[in-house]
Amino acid sequence: MADAAAFDYDVAIVGGGPTGCSAGLFTGRYGLETVVFDRGRSSLQRCAYLENYLGFPGGVDVETFYGLIHDHVEAAGCDLVSDLVEAVELVGDDETATADVAGDSGGDAADAAATGPGFAVTTQSGETVTARRVVAAARYGGDFLEPLGDDEMFVTYEYDGETRTKFDRDYADVEGRTPIDGLYVAAPVSEVNVQAIMSAGQGARVGRSVITDHRLERGYPETLARHWDWIRPETELADEETARDDWRERFDSRVPDDCDLSAARLRELREADVERQREMYVSEETVEARAERGHERLVDRLGFDAGSESDFDAAPE
Description:
By secondary structure, the protein is of the alpha/beta class. Strands 1, 2, 3, 4, 5, 6 and 9 form a seven-stranded mixed beta sheet that branches. Strands 7-8 form a two-stranded antiparallel ribbon. Helix 1 (18-30) packs parallel to helix 2 (62-75), helix 1 packs parallel to helix 3 (196-217) and helix 4 packs across helix 5. Strand 5 (118-123) and strand 6 form a beta hairpin. Mean pLDDT is 87; it is low at 1-5 and 95-113. The protein has helices at 18-30, 62-75, 196-217, 240-253, 263-279, 284-302; strands at 9-14, 34-37, 79-81, 85-91, 118-123, 128-137, 154-159, 162-167, 183-187, 232-233, 281-282. The chain is built from six helices and eleven strands. The longest helix has 22 residues, at 196-217.
């Protein structure tokens, strides 16, 4: 149980399928310390072959797909743990600091310590880690959330003459937030998790919700809390200093009149945000290097020489 000043992780994700990995990709890339647990029942593992996931014109076998998404979350900085989560419990209270913001992996300014309760995540092997936020991303069940003690999570239904209980797929809102501070549900949710690509989209949406709430906790006004993760060509920066001034002006224009943060704090948040925006622009050489690295990672996973045709069968005449 955690009464220390810092949690082990900013985010713990329960479920290492398309939903959980997509959420982790966003939180990891932002810089939040993220762990993804993958050891439960997977609906995708029941699929014989995946043919409707965009980007695979010939389809992809499930084993290769899992390898690719797991490679991706690890490349984004997430810890991937092959263990079944048995329980999630609340720890700490509203006065518990989650981290020293001076070392905040989110890269924000250093004078506003985030506070709030967190969670202890216990696995089948008996290991326990703590996290400020938890994302449930396991389509089957939700028993591991029972220790949180919210009866509204579960609904009863009749089956074959018996009364049974299941997780309420409408417990979370459309962006994954729940009545419990710091708890998000990306799966199971109504209608969304019926296709792998839809599940991945919901995971991304919830991952962005986590980032938004992290930024709110760090002091960003609500009008500036959302974050977009995209890479742009450096050639669009005709003049870097002019661009930085434009970003500062845009930031200031979106600060609400009733914002109660000090001018110094706002400047720190603004400069952190400007630096993040600058990092989104990369040179042509960087694009080429990343493209080459991306191809190499695919080759490593698929196990063939990208420069050779010997691994491909010739098309029938």
